[in-house]
Amino acid sequence: MDQSLLPGYVMSKAKIRVENLSKVFSTDEVDTYALSEVTLQVLEGDYLAISGPSGCGKSTLLSILGLLDAPTSGSYFLDGIDVSRMGLSEGAEVRCEKIGFVFQQFNLIDGLTVAQNVALPLRYSRTRRSAEQVQARVTDCLEKVGMNHRAGHRPNQLSGGQQQRIAIARALVANPAVLLVDEPTGNLDSANGDAIMALLDELNQAGTTICMVTHDPRYADFARTRISLLDGKIQSSHSRAAGRPKDEAA
Amino acid sequence: MLRQELAEAWSSLRKRPLFVLSIVLTLTVTLGILLCVVNLNQVLLLKALPYPAQERLVVGVGNVYESSEVKFADNVAYPIAELLEKSKAQTGLEQLAILNYGEEIVTNIAARPKLRITNATPDYFPILGAGFAKGSGFSARNGVGSHEPVAVISYETWQTYFGGRDNVLDDKVVVNDVSYRIIGVTAARFVEPELFQAGLKTNVWLPWEFNTWPPEIRRNWSAFTDQIKLLGLLAPGQRQAVAEQSINSLVSDRFKAETRGSAFLNNASYHVSLEGLKPYLVEDGRVSALLFLASGLALAIIACINVFNLLLSRAAEQLRELSIRATLGAKKSHIFRQVFAEHLLLVGTSTVLALLLATVVTSAMKDRIAGQLPRIAELSISPATVGVAIGLVLLLALAFSGLVTHLLDYRRLASQLKSSGKGSGLQVSATVRDTLVVSQIALAAFLLVAISSVVRLSYETITRDPGFNIDNLVFANLSTGALQPSRDERIRNIEDLTARLKQLPKVKQVSSALFVPMMSNRWTSSVKLDAAGTETVSVATNLVDDAYLSVMGEKLASGSNFSRDDVNSSAPKVLVNQEMARRIAPDGDVVGRHVYWQADGEGEFKPNEIIGVVRDVSIPRTPATPRLYATRYSGLRFIVQLDQGATLSRQEFLDVLGAVNSQYNLYEYERVDGIYHQLVLKDLFIVWVAIGLGVLTVLLASVGIYGVLNYGILLRRYELGVRMSIGAAPARIAQMVYTENLILCVYGTIASLVVLIAADRLLARYAGYELPLSWGAGATGYIVIVASVAAACYLTLRAIITRWPVFALRSE
Predict the structure, then answer these.
(1) B728 to A124: CB separation less than 8 angstroms, yes or no
(2) Which residues in B lie closer than 8 A to residue A125 (C-beta atoms)?
(3) Is the pLDDT of residue B603 over 80?
(4) Of residues B767 and B29, which shows the higher confidence score?
(5) Which residue, A209, A156, A211, is CA-closest to A180?
(6) Which residues have a Cβ under 8 Å from the Cβ of B237 and sit 6 or more positions away?
(7) Listed residue (B494, B469, B467, B466) closest to B641, CA to CA
(8) How many domains does chain A have?
(9) Is residue A75 scored above 90 in pLDDT?
(10) Alpha-carbon gap, residue B226 to B74, rounded angstroms
(11) Do the chains contact at B801 and A66, CB–CB below 8 Å?
């Protein structure tokens, strides 16, 4: 479907563009195509949901988009930069500056406070920031997720929903070009899951580009664009106008 | 009871051969060493002596006191020994034997070997409950004053020199032209107490009266020697202190009366202490044995920490399986049994191999270190040692299993399956992990510093320039047997033999001298520094000729050497060494001065002019000693200087000697470098043992440090993956891990320094022993530790930071 025909469509640049992306896991006996010739793009401000059955390659795709893994072939442009063949150190730099990753298991570091966890990407960044600048940014991100009152706590003192909010704050702190979210509600109950999805929706409404993997069709509906993967290939792609499903329903 | 678990453990361990090999090798070597030193300590310090009523056996230790200070320790004068033997009924001792040690050529054995001879009174064998393979020991008629020439030989001597012949009691030994009928052979199991020196075993016992002390020594109350010993058996119920008092009441006043007026002993007193035989024998070896035990324990602890870390890694690997078992209903005790079975197999196998290793090493120790420590001949793997081994198996298996099971956190085991499987469920706190690393480093560093210091000290002793020649020299000591040639005849023989030896192409020079420098402390005489005799110095004394300094390479610091005329005329001239010169005058300028020398220990102090000062020599394990060289020598001892690399065999020398006087024998014939190396043998032994321990420590420490750091870093693999996924560069991760672990290095270093200083203080206070700590040498140990830490970090991190973060997140 031609997206330019949708009401509310604004001409945006592509934050993510992959072309003919493949990922092959080779053993002595067999080559397994986790991804096969995947082509897609995520525009600025877009909200993409990637869904599909277990083993379809959605987590593999997200890992490659997050520069946590390298493709076997194909090209990947992130915010206009070709990151397809980057080395480990360059990849780390790009992850720091351009990508915010939210994991299913939250992946907060128990030995650090909430504020310290959120500040980590800024510590790893090449951009020098004063302590006050870091503190201000951390506070800002924690306020966005409604967790500033827990800045001094340790992750294991918080509930799952709270930890995921902290994880989202950490992903936002470096002002990334894109937020990559892997099954954000997988470890949460439905109430907390709904709250997290609402938060992500808010962030997207405010302009954050989000690419999310989910197997839950309810949460996939939050996204503006949905792609389905099967056996490492894109099976279908849907887009809708801006606004949440229930607005449409209303 | 554990059969099923053991079978499963065996099946599981078979699939991990490298893991099994690491643990078994580590434990086998370290437990083997530990069992050896435990065995050594048990024999040395705990095991009862193999004699009946051993708790009543005592040694009389006589000390000479001058002005309340010990002048001679553990020395006996000949008349004192005989007095006590004759008066033993008044001593409170049930039995008393007096012994004299010497070495003589046995001339009726084809090889004319020099054998160790002990002259003993008849009580000797009964005191020790000695059994006999043949015949019996001495009877009452072989006591003091008896001249019946009989002999008892040792079992080894019977086998070695008499072919184990059945009719040995028809045989004899001929010593100094006296033929002694063999009346007994000691039993194979007879263990002779090593009273004179560790490792010194008697070949032949002769009656007391046949000792070779000359008449003037036999009646001299001030001629002390450590070659005579007193061995007694307290009467039942008799207190040691009471017997001691009885002995001293016999000796003290008589000694004072006999030595009154002696210039050698100025207002001296003599006191005999009775020491238990066991403490007397083992005192010298106690500190060494305890040090070995401490080292063995430290090594074993390092090994156990290493093994524990490996077992923790194993538990982490088995987490899923254990989680399944817990889910299916296994209780904590079932999990413990599962883990215990595996640990029991590993530790049990290692301990069996360790016992075998200990058996081999113990056998080697008996051969190699017989002269270094007492009671080595009694070494064997005792039932107590086997008991310790069994105890170790149970203790270690239980301890490892208990700790691992505790860390597994049973409550969380069942829930592991519900998670995505990422990360590790083995909850080892950072404190436990860091403590393991710090203790590993501290122990290893402590051992390495101590070992480096000991090696350095012993190496310095071995390589120190002695200040005289030791190469290409042979020392020959002739025996005239029953002949008693006159002085003139001896001098003719000396000159004749010297001339004939010099005719041999390989002989460069010959000197006639009483001792080589390493031996000169065998004879001390007295020197007065002035005619009034206000100050007397005991000097190590040597009688030399004009060729001595040249042959031995000893250098003059000032003055001149003896001339041939001085030698021929026995001129009243002496040389002194620098140490002695400083006693005479602080600036050491003493040439031309006179000292008053009592040559024979009881005669007049005669004036002798100092014509030269010889540079001090350095003898291993001997402090700086004042020395005096005189030249009125007519004894039959020679130092032969050979061409570089040449040898002069005993037979070649005998051939030349035979042309001079066919009745002379060669009592002693040794290479001077061999005599010198005997002195450094103990240090060589220490160096090699220390180097061996050091290498083992480095290997174990490196393996252990690698193991614990590898495990610690791998436990954090997921966390490191998270850090990388949010932007940490590989170099940043490496910097973080290196810094954290090098900080632990610092803690470990501090801990090791504390332990070293504490050990040094404790040893000094309670054992009178100072660790020869060398911080320069010890720095090597710390460098090795830091290098091991850095290498361990690098090897482990490499697998994580050289791959994309997704591998760490998947714990691949």
Answers:
(1) yes
(2) 727
(3) no
(4) B29
(5) A211
(6) none
(7) B469
(8) 1
(9) yes
(10) 7
(11) no
Query: Side chain identity at B89, as an amino acid letter?
Result: A
Q: Which residues of B674-699 are buried (b: 16+ CB within 10 A; e: fewer)?
A: ebbeebbebbbbbbebbbebbebbbe
Report how far residue A89's alpha carbon sits from residue A75's, in angstroms, rounded to the nearest whole number. 19
The H or E element spanning position B295 is helix B277-317
Q: Which residues on chain B are in Cβ contact (under 8 Å) with A178?
A: none
Residue B518 is predicted with a pLDDT of 86
Looking at residue A145, its pLDDT comes to 92
- The percent of residues in chain B predicted with pLDDT above 70, rounded, is 93
Q: Is residue A108 part of a domain?
A: yes
Q: Which of B420, B801, B806 sits opposite A69 (nearest CB)?
A: B806
Please name the residues in contact with A187: beta carbons below 8 A apart, sequence gap of 6 or more. Answer: A104, A105, A106, A160, A164
Determine, for residues B729 and A93 on separate chains, whether the beta-carbon distance falls below 8 Å. Answer: yes
Residues with Cβ within 8 Å of residue B739, at least 6 apart in sequence? none
A2 inside domain? no
What is the C-alpha to C-alpha distance for residues B142 and A27, in angstroms, rounded to an integer? 92
Tens digit of pLDDT for each residue in A163-195? Answer: 999 999 999 999 999 999 999 988 888 898 999
Q: How far is B22 from chain A (nearest CA, A)?
A: 30
User: Which residue in B686, B690, B687, B758 sits closest to B447, CA to CA?
Assistant: B690
Task: Name the amino acid, one letter, at B580.
Answer: M
The candidate with the shortest Cα–Cα distance to A39, out of A17, A24, A60, is A17
Tens-digit pLDDT profile for residues A206-222: 999 999 999 888 888 88
In angstroms, what CA-CA distances link B112 with B101, B154, B175, B667? Answer: 19, 17, 10, 10
Strand order in the sheet with A99-102: A99-102, A178-182, A210-213, A47-51, A225-230, A233-239
CB distance B168 to B158 below 8 Å: yes
* In the predicted structure, residue B436 carries a pLDDT above the cut 50: yes
Per the structure block, which two tokens stand in for A70?
Answer: 């390298």
Residue A3 domain flag: no
Chain A interface, Cβ < 8 Å to B: 63, 66-70, 88-89, 91-93, 95-97, 101, 103-105, 107, 109, 111, 120-121, 124-125, 170-171, 174
Across chain B, mean pLDDT equals 85
pLDDT at residue B500, rounded to an integer: 95
Q: State both tokens at A207.
A: 């302009």
Q: What is the pLDDT of residues B4-44, one digit of tens each?
A: 888 888 988 888 887 788 889 889 988 998 998 888 888 88
Is pLDDT of B601 > 60?
Answer: no
Return the bridge partners of A75, or none.
Answer: A19
Q: Is residue B747 helix, strand or coil?
A: helix
Interface with chain B: mutation pick from A78, A84, A95, highest number of B CBs within 10 Å = A95
Q: How distant is the Cα of B411 from the closest Cα of chain A, in angstroms? A: 17
Give A-chain residues touching B732 at CB under 8 angstroms.
Answer: 92, 124
Domain enclosing residue A153, as ranges: 10-243
Question: What pTM was estimated for this model as a whole?
Answer: 0.61
Q: Is residue B665 classed as helix, strand or coil in its secondary structure?
A: strand
Whether A220 contacts A49, CB under 8 Å: yes
Are A124 and B804 in contact (CB < 8 Å)? no
pLDDT digits (tens, 9 = 90+) for B282-307: 877 777 788 888 888 888 887 888 88
A250 occurs within a structural domain: no
pLDDT at B445: 78
Question: Does residue B429 sit at the A interface (CB-CB below 8 Å)?
Answer: no
Chain B residues in contact with A107 (beta carbon < 8 A)? 722, 725
Chain B residues closer than 8 Å to A69 by CB: 804-806
Question: Does residue B587 carry a pLDDT above 50?
Answer: yes
Band (pLDDT 50/70/90 cuts) for residue B213 is: confident
| Beta-carbon separation of B804 and A93 below 8 A | no
Over residues B683-693, mean pLDDT = 75
CATH label of the domain that carries residue A215? 3.40.50.300
Contact (CB, 8 A) for B207 and B175: no
